[in-house]
Protein backbone atom coordinates (compact mmCIF):
# COMPACT_ATOMS: atom_id res chain seq x y z
CA UNK A 1 0.00 0.00 0.00
CA UNK A 2 2.84 2.39 0.84
CA UNK A 3 4.50 1.67 -2.52
CA UNK A 4 1.26 2.29 -4.41
CA UNK A 5 0.86 5.62 -2.64
CA UNK A 6 4.44 6.57 -3.50
CA UNK A 7 3.79 5.79 -7.14
CA UNK A 8 0.63 7.92 -7.15
CA UNK A 9 2.38 10.89 -5.54
CA UNK A 10 5.42 10.46 -7.78
CA UNK A 11 3.31 10.58 -10.93
CA UNK A 12 1.49 13.63 -9.58
CA UNK A 13 4.84 15.26 -8.82
CA UNK A 14 6.15 14.62 -12.33
CA UNK A 15 2.99 15.85 -14.04
CA UNK A 16 2.65 18.98 -11.90
CA UNK A 17 6.26 19.96 -12.48
CA UNK A 18 6.05 19.35 -16.22
CA UNK A 19 3.04 21.67 -16.40
CA UNK A 20 4.72 24.35 -14.29
CA UNK A 21 7.89 24.11 -16.41
CA UNK A 22 5.80 24.74 -19.54
CA UNK A 23 3.93 27.64 -17.95
CA UNK A 24 7.08 29.35 -16.65
CA UNK A 25 8.84 28.75 -19.94
CA UNK A 26 6.09 30.48 -21.90
CA UNK A 27 5.47 33.32 -19.42
CA UNK A 28 9.14 34.25 -19.12
CA UNK A 29 9.98 33.65 -22.79
CA UNK A 30 9.83 37.29 -24.00
CA UNK A 31 12.12 38.42 -21.14
CA UNK A 32 14.40 35.45 -21.68
CA UNK A 33 14.78 36.29 -25.37
CA UNK A 34 15.63 39.90 -24.54
CA UNK A 35 17.95 39.24 -21.60
CA UNK A 36 19.95 36.37 -20.06
CA UNK A 37 18.71 37.65 -16.70
CA UNK A 38 15.16 36.74 -17.66
CA UNK A 39 16.21 33.19 -18.51
CA UNK A 40 18.16 32.90 -15.27
CA UNK A 41 15.29 34.09 -13.08
CA UNK A 42 12.81 31.80 -14.83
CA UNK A 43 14.98 28.73 -14.32
CA UNK A 44 15.86 29.55 -10.72
CA UNK A 45 12.16 30.10 -10.00
CA UNK A 46 11.50 26.63 -11.34
CA UNK A 47 14.10 25.08 -9.01
CA UNK A 48 12.42 26.65 -5.99
CA UNK A 49 9.04 25.35 -7.14
CA UNK A 50 10.47 21.84 -7.52
CA UNK A 51 12.09 22.10 -4.09
CA UNK A 52 8.71 22.98 -2.56
CA UNK A 53 6.77 20.22 -4.34
CA UNK A 54 9.50 17.63 -3.74
CA UNK A 55 9.20 18.16 0.01
CA UNK A 56 5.42 18.12 0.18
CA UNK A 57 4.49 15.59 -2.49
CA UNK A 58 7.25 12.98 -2.40
CA UNK A 59 9.20 13.69 0.80
CA UNK A 60 12.51 14.75 -0.78
CA UNK A 61 14.50 17.50 0.89
CA UNK A 62 17.88 18.79 -0.20
CA UNK A 63 20.98 20.37 1.27
CA UNK A 64 24.17 22.05 0.09
CA UNK A 65 27.50 21.44 1.77
CA UNK A 66 30.87 23.06 1.34
CA UNK A 67 31.69 26.49 -0.03
CA UNK A 68 29.30 27.41 -2.83
CA UNK A 69 31.43 28.78 -5.68
CA UNK A 70 30.58 32.34 -6.62
CA UNK A 71 33.63 33.13 -8.74
CA UNK A 72 34.33 32.00 -12.29
CA UNK A 73 35.25 28.34 -12.06
CA UNK A 74 34.81 24.87 -13.47
CA UNK A 75 32.44 22.64 -11.50
CA UNK A 76 33.10 18.96 -12.15
CA UNK A 77 30.13 17.11 -10.68
CA UNK A 78 28.88 13.60 -10.09
CA UNK A 79 25.70 13.16 -12.13
CA UNK A 80 23.17 10.66 -10.80
CA UNK A 81 19.87 12.42 -11.43
CA UNK A 82 18.08 15.45 -12.83
CA UNK A 83 17.82 16.45 -9.18
CA UNK A 84 21.53 17.22 -8.87
CA UNK A 85 21.23 19.54 -11.88
CA UNK A 86 18.45 21.46 -10.12
CA UNK A 87 20.37 21.72 -6.84
CA UNK A 88 23.53 23.02 -8.50
CA UNK A 89 21.57 25.42 -10.69
CA UNK A 90 19.79 26.87 -7.69
CA UNK A 91 22.99 27.17 -5.66
CA UNK A 92 25.47 28.97 -7.89
CA UNK A 93 25.02 32.52 -9.22
CA UNK A 94 25.59 32.00 -12.96
CA UNK A 95 25.47 28.31 -13.88
CA UNK A 96 26.26 27.18 -17.41
CA UNK A 97 26.22 23.54 -18.43
CA UNK A 98 28.07 21.56 -21.04
CA UNK A 99 25.17 20.09 -23.03
CA UNK A 100 24.43 18.00 -26.09
CA UNK A 101 24.13 20.20 -29.16
CA UNK A 102 20.77 18.62 -30.09
CA UNK A 103 19.14 20.24 -27.04
CA UNK A 104 19.47 23.64 -28.72
CA UNK A 105 16.73 22.59 -31.13
CA UNK A 106 14.31 21.59 -28.36
CA UNK A 107 11.34 24.02 -28.33
CA UNK A 108 11.62 26.69 -25.61
CA UNK A 109 14.29 24.77 -23.66
CA UNK A 110 16.81 25.45 -26.40
CA UNK A 111 16.19 29.20 -26.17
CA UNK A 112 16.72 29.18 -22.41
CA UNK A 113 19.91 27.13 -22.74
CA UNK A 114 21.23 29.58 -25.34
CA UNK A 115 20.41 32.65 -23.23
CA UNK A 116 21.95 31.12 -20.10
CA UNK A 117 25.21 30.64 -21.98
CA UNK A 118 25.22 26.85 -21.91
CA UNK A 119 27.84 25.29 -24.15
CA UNK A 120 26.47 23.00 -26.86
CA UNK A 121 29.01 20.35 -27.79
CA UNK A 122 28.93 18.33 -30.98
CA UNK A 123 30.71 14.99 -30.95
CA UNK A 124 34.40 15.50 -31.67
CA UNK A 125 34.21 19.32 -31.58
CA UNK A 126 34.54 20.09 -27.86
CA UNK A 127 37.62 22.26 -28.30
CA UNK A 128 35.95 24.55 -30.84
CA UNK A 129 32.90 24.93 -28.59
CA UNK A 130 35.03 25.93 -25.60
CA UNK A 131 37.00 28.48 -27.64
CA UNK A 132 33.73 30.02 -28.81
CA UNK A 133 32.43 30.16 -25.22
CA UNK A 134 35.56 31.95 -24.04
CA UNK A 135 35.27 34.44 -26.90
CA UNK A 136 31.62 35.09 -26.01
CA UNK A 137 32.54 35.75 -22.36
CA UNK A 138 35.35 38.16 -23.29
CA UNK A 139 33.11 40.05 -25.71
CA UNK A 140 30.29 40.37 -23.19
CA UNK A 141 27.80 38.34 -25.26
CA UNK A 142 27.68 35.74 -22.47
CA UNK A 143 28.05 36.69 -18.80
CA UNK A 144 30.90 35.02 -16.91
CA UNK A 145 29.87 32.31 -14.52
CA UNK A 146 30.32 28.77 -13.31
CA UNK A 147 30.72 26.14 -16.02
CA UNK A 148 29.39 22.69 -15.05
CA UNK A 149 30.58 19.47 -16.63
CA UNK A 150 29.77 15.86 -15.78
CA UNK A 151 33.07 13.97 -16.03
CA UNK A 152 31.50 10.58 -16.75
CA UNK A 153 29.47 12.04 -19.61
CA UNK A 154 26.09 10.72 -18.45
CA UNK A 155 23.96 9.96 -15.41
CA UNK A 156 25.37 7.09 -13.39
CA UNK A 157 23.15 5.05 -11.07
CA UNK A 158 24.26 4.66 -7.45
CA UNK A 159 26.53 1.64 -7.25
CA UNK A 160 27.51 1.75 -10.94
CA UNK A 161 30.91 2.82 -12.24
CA UNK A 162 31.83 4.66 -15.42
CA UNK A 163 35.33 6.01 -16.10
CA UNK A 164 36.03 9.72 -15.84
CA UNK A 165 36.70 11.23 -19.26
CA UNK A 166 39.64 13.48 -20.04
CA UNK A 167 37.34 16.31 -21.19
CA UNK A 168 37.28 17.66 -17.62
CA UNK A 169 41.04 18.19 -17.76
CA UNK A 170 40.82 19.78 -21.22
CA UNK A 171 38.40 22.37 -19.87
CA UNK A 172 40.40 22.93 -16.69
CA UNK A 173 43.57 23.46 -18.72
CA UNK A 174 41.98 25.74 -21.31
CA UNK A 175 40.00 27.90 -18.89
CA UNK A 176 42.80 28.42 -16.37
CA UNK A 177 40.21 28.65 -13.58
CA UNK A 178 39.81 26.81 -10.26
CA UNK A 179 38.05 23.45 -10.43
CA UNK A 180 35.44 22.48 -7.83
CA UNK A 181 34.90 18.69 -7.51
CA UNK A 182 31.28 18.05 -6.52
CA UNK A 183 29.71 14.94 -4.97
CA UNK A 184 26.08 13.91 -4.55
CA UNK A 185 23.70 11.16 -3.45
CA UNK A 186 20.70 12.53 -5.39
CA UNK A 187 20.22 9.38 -7.45
CA UNK A 188 19.02 7.50 -4.38
CA UNK A 189 15.83 9.57 -4.25
CA UNK A 190 15.28 10.64 -7.88
CA UNK A 191 16.44 7.51 -9.74
CA UNK A 192 17.39 7.31 -13.38
CA UNK A 193 14.88 5.66 -15.71
CA UNK A 194 11.75 5.69 -13.53
CA UNK A 195 9.04 8.10 -12.40
CA UNK A 196 9.15 6.73 -8.86
CA UNK A 197 10.54 9.23 -6.35
CA UNK A 198 11.79 8.04 -2.97
CA UNK A 199 11.64 10.11 0.24
CA UNK A 200 14.95 11.16 1.75
CA UNK A 201 17.57 13.88 2.11
CA UNK A 202 19.56 14.64 -1.02
CA UNK A 203 22.93 16.34 -0.66
CA UNK A 204 25.24 18.11 -3.09
CA UNK A 205 28.67 18.77 -1.63
CA UNK A 206 31.14 21.24 -3.10
CA UNK A 207 34.58 19.93 -2.23
CA UNK A 208 37.90 21.81 -1.85
CA UNK A 209 38.97 23.66 -4.98
CA UNK A 210 41.82 22.60 -7.24
CA UNK A 211 43.82 25.63 -8.32
CA UNK A 212 44.90 26.02 -11.95
CA UNK A 213 48.15 24.49 -13.12
CA UNK A 214 47.93 20.80 -12.23
CA UNK A 215 49.22 18.23 -14.73
CA UNK A 216 46.73 15.84 -16.32
CA UNK A 217 47.54 12.61 -14.48
CA UNK A 218 47.45 13.96 -10.91
CA UNK A 219 44.43 16.11 -11.74
CA UNK A 220 42.38 13.20 -13.07
CA UNK A 221 43.41 10.91 -10.21
CA UNK A 222 42.56 13.49 -7.54
CA UNK A 223 39.29 14.41 -9.25
CA UNK A 224 38.01 10.86 -9.49
CA UNK A 225 39.12 9.89 -6.00
CA UNK A 226 37.50 12.95 -4.42
CA UNK A 227 34.20 12.77 -6.29
CA UNK A 228 33.74 9.02 -5.95
CA UNK A 229 34.76 8.92 -2.28
CA UNK A 230 32.62 11.94 -1.46
CA UNK A 231 29.56 10.54 -3.27
CA UNK A 232 30.02 7.14 -1.65
CA UNK A 233 30.16 8.74 1.81
CA UNK A 234 26.96 10.69 1.13
CA UNK A 235 25.19 7.56 -0.05
CA UNK A 236 26.25 5.59 3.02
CA UNK A 237 25.06 8.46 5.20
CA UNK A 238 21.67 8.25 3.50
CA UNK A 239 21.39 4.55 4.29
CA UNK A 240 22.54 2.95 1.03
CA UNK A 241 23.80 -0.54 1.82
CA UNK A 242 24.65 -1.82 -1.65
CA UNK A 243 28.05 -2.16 -3.26
CA UNK A 244 29.78 1.11 -4.04
CA UNK A 245 32.29 1.80 -6.81
CA UNK A 246 35.90 2.64 -6.06
CA UNK A 247 37.90 5.21 -8.01
CA UNK A 248 39.99 3.52 -10.69
CA UNK A 249 42.24 6.43 -11.60
CA UNK A 250 44.44 6.44 -8.48
UniProtKB/TrEMBL annotation:
<keyword id="KW-0812">Transmembrane</keyword>
<protein>
    <submittedName>
        <fullName>1-acyl-sn-glycerol-3-phosphate acyltransferase</fullName>
    </submittedName>
</protein>
<dbReference type="Pfam" id="PF01553">
    <property type="entry name" value="Acyltransferase"/>
</dbReference>
<keyword id="KW-0808">Transferase</keyword>
<feature type="transmembrane region" description="Helical">
    <location>
        <begin position="7"/>
        <end position="31"/>
    </location>
</feature>
<dbReference type="GO" id="GO:0006654">
    <property type="term" value="P:phosphatidic acid biosynthetic process"/>
</dbReference>
<comment type="pathway">
    <text>Lipid metabolism.</text>
</comment>
<dbReference type="GO" id="GO:0003841">
    <property type="term" value="F:1-acylglycerol-3-phosphate O-acyltransferase activity"/>
</dbReference>
<dbReference type="InterPro" id="IPR002123">
    <property type="entry name" value="Plipid/glycerol_acylTrfase"/>
</dbReference>
<feature type="domain" description="Phospholipid/glycerol acyltransferase">
    <location>
        <begin position="73"/>
        <end position="187"/>
    </location>
</feature>
<keyword id="KW-0012">Acyltransferase</keyword>
<keyword id="KW-1133">Transmembrane helix</keyword>
<keyword id="KW-0472">Membrane</keyword>
Amino acid sequence: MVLIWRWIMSILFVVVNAVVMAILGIVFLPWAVLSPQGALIACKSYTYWVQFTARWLVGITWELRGDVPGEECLIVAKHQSFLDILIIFQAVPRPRFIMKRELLWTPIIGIYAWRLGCVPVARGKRGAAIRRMMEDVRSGRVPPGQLVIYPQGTRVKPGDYKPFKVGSYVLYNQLGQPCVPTATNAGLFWPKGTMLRKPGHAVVEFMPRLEPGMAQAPFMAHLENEIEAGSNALMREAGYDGELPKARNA
